[in-house]
From TrEMBL:
GO terms for molecular function: S-adenosylmethionine-dependent methyltransferase activity. The lineage of its organism: Bacteria, Pseudomonadati, Pseudomonadota, Alphaproteobacteria, Sphingomonadales. This is SAM-dependent methyltransferase. SUPFAM superfamilies: S-adenosyl-L-methionine-dependent methyltransferases. The keyword Membrane does not apply. GO terms for biological process: methylation.
């Protein structure tokens, strides 16, 4: 890697180590609540594909979802740039008595797994932190023939959210980039891309009533 890539990776590591030591993005919870219907659909799709499979959680964080998936997966592997998160994931797997898991600190753009290692690679809010060309090439390499990659990511075309992002730089790393149409075109060079599903264009308007009697409990 060149100096700029090394700087970016180290910046991401520092940010996410701080995040998993003491959460720095609590204020964003109200926005995630407004797209919970999409998040639940993502969870169901991943759980369906994980049954009996060799699974890689790409950017696993503390592995809250991965530990549950491990109960039906053949194997569950997780990587994250944050060694704090990986320590948490290992401790959780041990506490839950889940033994088909393997968690390690790794650069997601340059994974060291053998080619054709996984039936499923999935991630939540991870690839928009990465160099997408390196990310897609790395994911493609470790997927088995016929394997699936499923991601839940922010988009960069909502002007309201873009304005909010500009006003809250402390909540994110300087190099992250919500996905654009051009990023989907890049993905098509590496994968047969299914039709994406989009959430939040109108439901974001529910944020002001989140804590009122009109809101659906989360």
């Amino acid at each position: 890697m060149n100096d700029d890539q090394l700087r970016r990776i180290e910046s991401e590591r520092e940010f996410h180590n701080a995040r998993f030591t003491e959460e720095v993005r609590d204020a964003q919870g109200k926005y995630y609540a407004s797209i919970k219907h999409g998040s639940l659909m993502f969870d169901r799709r991943v759980a369906e594909l994980a049954k009996g499979a060799d699974v890689l959680e790409y950017g696993c964080g503390s592995a809250l979802q991965g530990i549950e998936l491990a109960r039906t997966a053949r194997t569950m592997t997780g990587i994250d740039i944050s060694d704090v998160a990986i320590a948490d994931a290992r401790a959780l797997a041990e506490a839950q008595g889940v033994h088909n898991t393997h968690y390690q600190t790794m650069n997601a753009e340059d994974m060291t797994f053998a080619p054709n290692s996984f039936d499923l690679v999935f991630g939540r809010g991870i690839i928009h932190h990465l160099d997408l060309e390196r990310c897609f090439a790395s994911v493609q390499r470790v997927l088995k023939p016929g394997g699936r990659a499923v991601f839940w990511e922010p988009l960069g075309h909502n002007p309201v959210l873009n304005r909010y992002r500009s006003a809250t730089p402390e909540a994110r790393t300087p190099d992250e980039h919500p996905l654009l149409r051009s990023d989907f075109r890049l993905a098509e060079r590496y994968f047969d891309v299914d039709t994406p599903r989009f959430y939040g264009l109108t439901t974001i308007a529910s944020v002001p009533i989140r804590d009122t009697v009109w809101a659906t409990p989360c």
